[in-house]
Amino acid sequence: MDTVYKISKAEQLNTDTFLFTINSEKVSKKARAGQIVHVKCGDEDGVLLRRPISICSVDRENGTFDIVFQIRGKGTKILSKYKAGDDIDIMGPLGQGFSLYPKHKKIIVVGGGIGIFPLLQLLKDHPAENKKAILGFRDKSCVILEKEFKQASDKLIITTDDGSYGEKGFVTDILKKELDKEPADMVFFCGPLIMMKLGVGIVKEYDIPCQVSMEQRMGCGIGACLVCVCKTKKGDDWDYTQVCKKGPVFGGDDIIFD
Amino acid sequence: MNDSINLKVNIGGLELKNPVIAASGSFGFGREYSRYFDLNRLGGIAVKGLTPLPRKGNPPPRIAETPSGILNSVGLQNPGVHEFIEKEIPFLRGFDTAIIANASGNTVEEYESMVEILSDADVDAIELNLSCPNVKEGCLSFGSSAKGVNNVVSSVKKYAKKPLIVKLTPNVTDITEIAKAAEDAGADSVSLINTILGMAIDAKTRRPILGNITGGLSGPAVKPIALRMVYQVSKAVKIPVIGMGGISNGTDAIEFLLAGASAVMIGTAGFVNPMAWVETIEGIEAYMALNHVNAVTELIGGLIV
Predict the structure, then answer these.
(1) A206 and A105, same structural domain?
(2) Residues A203 and A119 in one domain
(3) Which of A213, B182, B196, B231 is spaced 20 to 30 A from A244 at the CA atom?
């Protein structure tokens, strides 16, 4: 099976975050914003499982796609050592991406930390007339892909927890301010669970629909092993649903945030 | 495939065209992997562990990576035996591969009822799960003592109209005692090992990584333990043994056959390499061709000591 592709560019974005551009006609042709790829890191240090990484952007003309990841453990540490020209073993694209509706004229994307990446391709692909991006980072040193997000949106607001860059505070507070000024047709969230939980609560007050991209420790990546579940509504009941297959993007209303 | 090579095995009345089976819990009901390879290649599929009623399973996270292994704590999430019969068997019957229904229950009565229901369903064998480490009731509470295993297996035996495989836990002092109890009670074969109970802790947060605190260890890390247990059990019982635990390729599978297994199951390896099952079959064939082995049965228990 053809799952080994070449890395055409490997770039370090800050102390622990890396961007790979990968040559793959198949992935770039099929990928939709919000989908993931399941990456084999190598088996040094007893690392076994693949790592799910969201697709950050896609160049359909040139047959490449970008992934961005942060070193968070042994697997991503091994991955960070890959160089341009290396082969990389990838399954994907996998899962359900964001749903983009052409009737939506005003959209807002809200991202936190390493959750911002899948929102870039969403902004590029969405036909809306007015696209806002609200991105939150811990501090100035963590701010990445600012230029790319600026290009892909009509308005970019960056926040940092400590105020060292952009506005000081949380993205959810900024979202509230923006919604007070002007409503939106759809809001997209990707980031820490607590941010998404607060965000879903906020847009509900304004009666605006939203989509969230969930993250969970993953096994097979295709829905067979049932390990990467999140809690979802099912009529009056609830169920555990596979993030890899039925997600990672869900309707904000479908998720039960405990 | 080399025509002179015979991969057929008989596991206590269950005929398999080759000795490679997808292990229960790793393969769902085959739908997902059917997009990656031709399920007709497999000797059999042991489906996701079934219970009388649907089960939601344990809270996430349900997986933690450990050195050369994984811990899982899924907890038998499944749609229930009736939905399996109605929706999944017709799909699986579209392929020329044995269907092995993995069955669990909370009580002896539930195990009896599962075996009765599945005996009338279109499956080729029933694998009695007496070894899931991730549920509070049933399973391990029966499977961890010879008395418990004898009790369940002899109780279900009268309802079994299909070959009965008993899946054993490694979380016991002497697995041969458990295997003998299964054999005495009428098991047609045993499969081992289920996962080894373990846990993982995040020192940073001072919390367990798994939502269920403990989980079952699988993957290459458990292979030496599994090989040892397959070796011991195959010496202790006359019924066939299905071996599993950390098998990732043809060489691993050959080692289990030599240790005494008549067939092998593969699970975790598929998460890393979706072609692991097919490549293992090809690896067994290549080994046989290289070593002039005509029938795979010649390898079973062929360890030179």
Answers:
(1) yes
(2) yes
(3) B196
pTM, 2 dp = 0.94
Name the residue type at position B113.
Answer: S
- Is the CB of residue B281 less than 8 Å from the CB of residue B39? no
B7, B71, B128, B132: which one is catalytic? B132
CB contact under 8 A, B63 and A218: yes
Helical segments of chain A, H only: 25-30, 74-79, 117-125, 146-152, 171-181, 193-205, 243-246
Contact B134, B212 (CB under 8 A): yes
Q: Which of chain B's residues have a Cβ under 8 Å away from the Cβ of A255?
A: none
Q: How far apart are CA B50 and CA A224, in angstroms?
A: 14
Residue A74, domain CATH:
2.40.30.10
In this structure, are A46 and A104 located in the same domain?
Answer: no
Residues A120 and A194 in one domain: yes
Question: Which CATH number do you get for residue B289?
Answer: 3.20.20.70
CA A139 to chain centre: 19
Domain CATH number, residue A191? 3.40.50.80
Name the DSSP class of A252.
G
Chain A closest CA to B217's CA: distance in Å? 13
SS3 of A197, please? helix
Closest CA to A158 of A110, A124, A200: A110
Residues A219 and A232 in one domain: yes
Percent of chain A with pLDDT over 90: 95
Host domain of residue A221: 214-258
* pLDDT per position as a tens digit, B79-117: 999 999 999 999 999 999 999 999 999 999 999 999 999
Same domain, A71 and A111: no
Query: Is the residue at B212 inside a domain?
Result: no
Task: State whether A24 and A48 are in the same domain.
Answer: yes
Q: How many domains does chain B have?
A: 1
- The question of whether B132 is a catalytic residue gets the answer yes
Contacts B26 to A, Cβ<8 Å: 220, 224-225
User: With b meaning 16 or more CB within 10 Å and e meaning fewer, what string describes B42-75?
Assistant: bbbbbbbbbbbeebbbbebbbbbbbebbbbbbbb
What CATH number did the domain enclosing A230 receive?
2.10.240.10
Per-position b or e across B251-271, b if 16+ CB within 10 A of its CB: ebbbbbbbbbbbbbbbbbbbb
The dihedral sign for the CA sequence A146, A152, A154, A159: negative
A224 and B219 within 8 Å at the Cβ level: the answer is: no
Same domain, A158 and A127: yes
Closest-CA residue of chain B to A218: B63
Domain boundary pick from A94, A123, A156:
A94
Which band of pLDDT confidence, cut at 50, 70 and 90, is reported for residue A2? low
Task: Domain count for chain A, please give it.
Answer: 3
